[in-house]
Write the structure tokens for this entry.
Amino acid sequence: MNLNNSTTFIITSLGIFLSQAFFAQHKEDSRSYISGNVQAIAQYYNADSLINAADPDHKMGMNSFANINFRKGNFSAGTRFESYLNPLEGYPVGFKGSGIGYRYASWKNDDVEITVGNFYEQFGSGMILRIWESRQLGIDNALDGIKLKYNPYKGVYLKGLIGKQRFRFDDGLKNGDGLVRGLDGEVNLNELLDSTFDNSKFKITLGGSFVSKYNNDNATPDFIMPHNVGAYGGRIIARYGKVRFYGEYITKENDPYPDPSAPKFNYLYKNGEAVLLNLGYSTKGFSVDFNAKHQDNMLWRSTNVSALPTDLLIGYSPALSKQHTYALASTLYPYSPNARGEIAYQLDVLYKIPKKSKLGGKYGWDLGLNIATAYAPQRTFINDDSTSRKMYSTSIFSASDSLFFRDINFSIGKKINKKLKLKLQYLNFIFDDRVQLVAKHHELIMADIVVADLTWKVNKKNSIKYQVQHLSTLQDQGNWAFGQIEYAYSPHWFVAVLDQWNYGNTIKEQQIHYLLATAGYIKGSNRFTLQYGRQRAGVFCVGGVCRQVPASNGLTFSFTSSF
Amino acid sequence: MKKLVSIALGMMLTVAMFAQLPDVKIKDLEGNSVDISKLSNNGKPIIISFWATWCKPCKAELNTIAEEYEDWVDETGVKMIAVSIDDARSTGRVEPYVNAQGWEYDVLLDPNGDLKRAMNVNNVPHTFLIDGKGKIVWDHNNYAAGDEEELYEEILKLTK
């Protein structure tokens, strides 16, 4: 052991010497940099049958991550250590044990960047390809392979990639069998033709992508499955002064998936298609933004057998609705795009009544209106179950009268004086849970929510926030009331207590208080929080994927840091 | 194997442990590529603040600073770069929000978290202060009313 230590020391010193020598040879910045971050969330579970709380046999769950990145000149490399001992309750299955979940090496100069190992990437809006991670949701579909980015000429950006997708974590990275291959090109005409376009108010970027997958997964003897499936599309990003436009069209070849609950969508050989449009005008103090989306049969994974909602996704489907932040508005009835198909519209208007105006007073007012809807496409079913299995026809933006979801919300923000800021919000939801399947009784839910949020900056260091929310509905679990008070001592400390009370539940025993206390300490990039109490079950949705987090009762500790 | 690890460890010990801006390109609101490692403000400090349209404390922080931003710029020459991590669901909402609030910041889009990952950001808001030489000298992963005062004191230290 002693001998070992001294050898280690000598060799370590040699390493230091070698790297010093390395330094001396280069004049530009060839120092090495190390950076990274750490995140750990641990939860201790108490039994609480009243709220049907998660009560695992192992009593405690802990998810932790540590990224370490190394950079020297044009070279970089990094790795992520992950540990799920055991995974937090409600985290998707397929995360267990400890090990390396991500590692890469990359080299770049001004025009070229090559990455080997794991990487993330997005083409356009991500509908055709989005390789990403969301630790909160438990999504990580990182590719493992090679990626090349090339900038051959000013304004021209090319990307090519190939790899297998991350599928499971079981003491280390486990990839799926399917291959994903993609090419993307983008031309920024203003950069390309800078002499003619340089000071033009008109700006335009064109892009195109091709993504193909290969897999021979097959869970059915009844159908011949395509092994290679391609998807392609184009996009245009344009602006003229204060007007901005984004348009994207994607089509996908026949890509049949099992869908046992719906015979008309089971092993469907119809091509998929998606259109995303965004038109906006904005100027100081006022903006109006309109979105429209048509999507049909756009489930896009690198496997064609049954999979969990978050598994092996290649494409991402943006929800055309506002991501709410208030608890009763965000995690009880969150809308998630319908993978089989939907037609969605959204209008968003923001207006600031100017300060020092007659109506605006000293500080002005912030007004916001947001309207979002989604409908089922108008489908004409054809009887070809035993022949081509295209099942139905649709046309772009042709919606049926079957409403999946509607959200109308209005907000007012007002700075009352130097110390007080008030925000009021009203939301009205129609949510068809016969399609969404996230609430309890799978029915059409209509809900009204009001929120009042007051921040009181007592003095330089001390501030107090009050929040009350109320949700009223005749369906699902009935009415909810919410109250929160938070005290912060800047810049290091905060404590908060919140209660969510399901007082409108028709079952008297279920009229429960979910009382939760939180305290936190923040210093630089270190952040510690402790929570104790009951947490309501909730649903978190991103990109057409939802995660149901069960109710729990217990102690949660979380720590994040970066260096 | 053990020797290799030791050599690697030795090399690591000489590593500059302070963080530097990463070599990542993301886009601004007009679609122009911006190389983060080449950000400069003529030797004056830069604030990089990660935010999202769905993040309340982030918006509170940036709106509070917006009220004092003119004075900050006059007194210290500091520049704010607000990096939105909104993805395709809400990237379209970034520019309307920025304009409606009348922010005078440079705004960049990081829809797939490339810069967020490179700067080791776990969650938003996360605000960094960069000195005139591109070195990260201070960061803070939270916002509570009053935190902007500490940030401003740090900026003053750099400009004295």
